[in-house]
Amino acid sequence: MSAVRLESVYKRFGELEVVKNANLSLDTGELCVFLGPSGCGKSTTLRMVAGLEPVTSGRIFIGERDVTDFEPRDRDIAMVFQNYALYPHKTVAQNLSFGLQMRGFGATEVERRVSEAASLLGLSELLQRKPKQLSGGQMQRVALGRALVRDPQVFLLDEPLSNLDAKLRVQMREEILKLHRRLGKAMIFVTHDQVEAMTLADRLVVMRDGEVQQIGTPLEIFDFPKNTFVATFIGSPEMNLLDMVYESGMLTCAGLSIKPTGPIPVAERSRLKVGIRPEHVQIADAGVRTDDGGVFEVEVVEQLGTSTLLVGKVDGQRMQVQGPRCGDRSGDKIPIAFQTEKLHLFDSVSGTRIPISEYSPIAKTA
Prior knowledge:
Layout: E1 2-13, E2 16-27, E3 31-35, H1 42-50, E4 57-62, E5 65-66, E6 77-80, H2 92-102, H3 107-120, H4 136-148, E7 154-158, H5 166-183, E8 186-191, H6 194-200, E9 203-208, E10 211-216, H7 218-223, H8 228-233, E11 240-247, E12 250-253, E13 256-258, E14 270-276, E15 281-283, E16 293-303, E17 308-314, E18 317-323, E19 333-338, E20 344-347
Parallel strand pairs: 3-8, 3-9, 6-7, 7-8
Antiparallel strand pairs: 1-2, 1-4, 4-5, 9-10, 11-12, 11-14, 12-13, 13-16, 14-20, 15-19, 16-17, 16-19, 17-18
Helix pairs in contact: 2-3, 2-4
């Protein structure tokens, strides 16, 4: 049974259309992540599910109920906000219990739920503290606990980790994953951080300018992006995109030539966007074949610890190459080779993926 279902949902503020024809079915127990740049409509979509924003048109279902016109309190959801939204004058225990008391739960049931949530989230020793006495990570746990005590059908999390430092973000991602597995409830998590999205999501919804660009598992979207926006938004460092021409069975531009692993269903001399991830470009003077490649002019060297990212140009086009650790090669002109089975092809005008059954970026990895 679907825990959440969106059917042709639109949201307009006056003449501005911020969410366009959103359709989604989220299963019980699934963690779905809305990912996209700022202003793409992901938080607005979440707020419509929560009932905090009215829907302009379309329908929203939670379980079997059409909740499009329901008040937030009647939707059986719990929401965790970016700014924690804790009551500063109340203790942790009072923050956790307040919502339950307002809904008329008895003292024994309130105490049981607060105790269980505090134990699950490691808050038992902090129940008498106030928010100003807590760290950022502890406050985020309290915010999660306040949602948890509700025992809702659906959890909604709106960029809950964005105020934490890098180390705490990693720790809290782990906490959320563990919590999700224990509860088995549907969760929708909004973020603009693709690392968060890739590590948390059972299913990923990539949005841009109010429209859903692609829905799938993180690896499906990473391996088979539907368009150039998704291709460059998913993956760090981002995918290289090169303007090339398909001619006589070869992909070419000045100083660069690649022989595809199979036929490409486009006309002779078609202009294409050719995508290749930085980790699938190799420095040819490291003993790699140079049949498919060109000369790469290194401009910037970024040391990443376990690897090195070289940033430069091929045929005047920006390219990144990620490989083993190496010294400073700024200004070097080096031959590079491509793992041709890992190429991605896109229409040069629309940016949409060119599907080729024989031509898969993961077909030859087995």
